[in-house]
Amino acid sequence: MKLKICIFLSLAGGILSFGQEKKKEPVKFNQELATTLGADQYGMKPYTIVMLTTGTAKIEDKAKMNELMKGHMANIGKLADEGKIIVAGPFLEKNKENYRGMFIFNTKSKEEAEQWVKTDPAVKAGVFGYEIFPWYGSAALPLYLKHHDEITKENP
């Protein structure tokens, strides 16, 4: 019985506090921004995701691997500066698919995304393979990039 009363009081308190929250002003639709970002009526747009996989190359030379990874990072920066890549990063855990990292490219064209991923020195060398998928997400996704430098102390 005490448990039922505790649950009831917790729920009632939650409902009462929810009702007392201040209502937020609705965000005003910005047609100019939506058009600039290529948003549809839902604020979304198509992108292409490239999943980097473990490649076929086995490079034992640490200096060569470091050179390839520096080139990999430089290429990501170049593609980001050009507005082609909007998200990139490694996975933090091993997985059964052997996915190592991913890119979200600012294109709906799988062919264009493949051209861009092939500019990566680590992909060219076979350190990474890749799989390509169409994806639908928020058209505002590229906006985070303009703030990334503001929160970055070091580049890898």
Number of helices: 6
Overall SS class: alpha+beta
- Named at the architecture level, the CATH assignment is 2-Layer Sandwich
Largest sheet: 4 strands, antiparallel
* Biggest β-sheet: strands ordered side by side in the sheet: 2-3-1-4
- Which residues sit in consecutive blocks of at least 5 with pLDDT less than 50? 2-12
3D architecture notes:
- By secondary structure, the protein is an alpha+beta fold.
- It has a single domain, classed as 2-Layer Sandwich (Alpha-Beta Plaits).
- It is 39% helix and 22% strand.
- A four-stranded antiparallel sheet has the order 2-3-1-4.
- InterPro entries: Dimeric_a/b-barrel (IPR011008), YCII (IPR005545).
Task: Provide tags for this entry.
Alpha-Beta Plaits; 4-stranded antiparallel beta sheet; alpha+beta
Offer a quick outline of the entry.
With 156 residues, this protein is of the alpha+beta class. The protein has helices at residues 2-19, 31-37, 62-81, 110-117, 121-124, 145-148, and strands spanning 44-54, 85-90, 99-105, 128-138.
Element layout with pairings:
Blueprint (H helix, E strand, L loop, with lengths): L1 H18 L11 H7 L6 E11 L7 H20 L3 E6 L8 E7 L4 H8 L3 H4 L3 E11 L6 H4 L8
Antiparallel strand pairs: 1-3, 1-4, 2-3
